[in-house]
Specification:
Length: 392
């Protein structure tokens, strides 16, 4: 009776695992890839030109990499390994490296983002540099390089074994116990988990909490200022709504909300994966409970990479508006409106220390056929110095 009950449980578990790996995970991966591509398309709009949005584009690109890397994993777990050497070689030596590279890059980029925002809020003068965008791209690139460098030893975790059969050679995937059974390997795994996952996660949560506390303090000051100004309003008191209409302040409010939800989602979805080595520190790979919990952890972790488009649509009004413009095919209209900007309007890129310039006046002096195009180098330098003094 016990054996019959055990076989029934095993059959039910296998049916559930097939549903997870053949239906649930492919659905999450497909929707996640589409959602992150949509995020990249929307954040590529000129309205999202800040440094923070460059980091968020890097996060979305890393998410696409994780989800794409999960496609062959879901095929292997749901339908088995194809009996050819290139396929088995990929699963043995490249599968874990690819997934781990993009996963680590995601955490590192988010940590760089929260550090950048912390510096901008508490030490704004230190990031007013023309190289801010270049440094941001470098940090994103280094995150991927570091993720690959740390993940490269995982290529030796598995090995390909050949089994001669009557119908030909069969290839099998097995753990390389000669490497994974050593103390050095255990030290490598724990060091990678602590330095590449735990520490950046703690930095993300700590600095994000400080930033949230700072903006709660600013909101309290804003409400206090509004109440006092409404009570003692005079001709000399400025309109308090100017404080709330400040574009940089509103943008930071949106980013605070967005980052807080993303950090909370990251922690909740990563908890099952973090608990696996502690709950199943002594397990067998055929254990039903372990396989089910591992599948549940994979689903929750993949949800973190796939659900960000919902977070953007829920927390960012600008993202929703730009998303609707893309759906309504209004991008061409926006470009035409940008070309018709009023003469002398300031194009403000000072959010992160990039250029600030005035639109040229459409007169005969700067027309293509004008003789003013033959100005000397000294006159050009004098004009640049005048513009620089206006900016300062």
């Amino acid at each position: 009776m016990d054996e019959a009950g055990g076989s029934h449980v095993l059959h039910e578990a296998r049916s559930l695992l097939r549903i997870i790996y053949r239906i649930m995970i492919p659905t999450i991966v497909t929707s996640g890839i589409f959602g992150n591509i949509l995020i990249l398309a929307v954040l590529s709009s000129p309205i999202f030109r800040g440094i923070s949005y460059l980091y968020l584009r890097g996060v979305a690109f890393a998410h696409v990499g994780v989800l794409l890397s999960w496609i062959p994993i879901s095929i292997r777990l749901g339908r088995g390994i194809r009996n050819n050497y290139p396929s088995v070689f990929y699963h043995a030596h490249l599968e874990l490296v690819a997934v781990n590279t993009f996963a680590i890059a995601t955490i590192l980029i988010m940590a760089c983002l929260i550090v950048d925002r912390y510096i901008y809020i508490f030490f704004p003068a230190r990031i007013r540099s023309r190289n801010a965008r270049k440094n941001c791209r470098s940090f994103i690139l280094y995150s991927f390089i570091l993720g690959f460098a740390v993940s490269a030893p995982l290529a030796a975790m598995r090995a390909v074994y050949e089994r001669p059969e009557d119908d030909g050679t069969h290839f099998a995937l097995r753990e390389n116990i000669s490497i994974t059974g050593t103390g050095l390997w255990s030290a490598y795994i724990w060091t990678m988990e602590i330095l590449m996952r735990l520490c950046p996660t703690m930095i993300l949560l700590l600095l994000n909490s400080i930033v949230v506390k700072r903006f709660l303090h600013l909101n309290a000051k804003k409400k206090e200022f509004q109440s006092v100004s409404e009570k003692y309003r005079t001709a000399n008191v400025s309109d308090p709504s100017l404080f709330t209409r400040n574009r940089g302040y509103r943008e930071e409010q949106h980013l605070v909300t967005l980052m807080s939800v993303m950090a909370a989602c990251f922690m909740v979805t990563m908890i099952p994966s973090i608990l696996i080595p502690f709950v199943y520190h002594d397990y067998e790979t055929t254990d039903v409970g372990y396989r089910l919990f591992r599948a549940f952890a994979a689903v929750t972790e993949l949800c973190n990479f796939a659900v960000h488009v919902v977070i953007y649509l829920s927390c960012s009004k600008q993202f929703r508006e730009e998303f609707l413009k893309i759906l309504q095919n209004k991008c061409r209209k926006n470009v035409e409106e940008e070309d018709e900007r009023p003469v002398g309007e300031i194009e403000d890129y000072s959010r992160h220390g990039t250029t600030v310039r005035l639109t040229p006046e459409p007169t005969k002096l700067n027309s293509p056929g004008s003789s003013s195009k033959l100005n000397t180098m000294e006159q050009d330098k004098e004009s640049e110095l005048l513009n620089a003094s206006d900016i300062v």
